[in-house]
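1st attempt posting a full record on here, be nice pls
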Amino acid sequence: MPGLFDGTNLEQPVTCPACGKAVDACACPRDASGAVCLPKDQDARVRREKRRGKWVTVVTGLDAAATNLKQLAKDLKAKCASGGSVTEDGVELQGDHRDAVVAHLKTLGYPAKPSGG
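the predicted structure (as tokens):
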């Protein structure tokens, strides 16, 4: 991608608006379109469902391209000491861990809110 004033003595590389580094060196999370998608911009919702008589905690509203869902699921499973899986639109954990998941997501910078009853 050409920079500002490309080909002149005033040439400057294109920088990331979030961190200010050159786009090549930027490690900011990006969505599928390439735009910067920080955790504070993702609207995480944590709800609990009852499936076959057992509780399941479901995290939705995360951008799969900008968030490492596998690592997030691993961290949440370790924090809650339960099993779980990654779905195409979020994370599912076995058991009722809604409050602990909301607290952990808030420490990571997500504006997480509990939803449902």
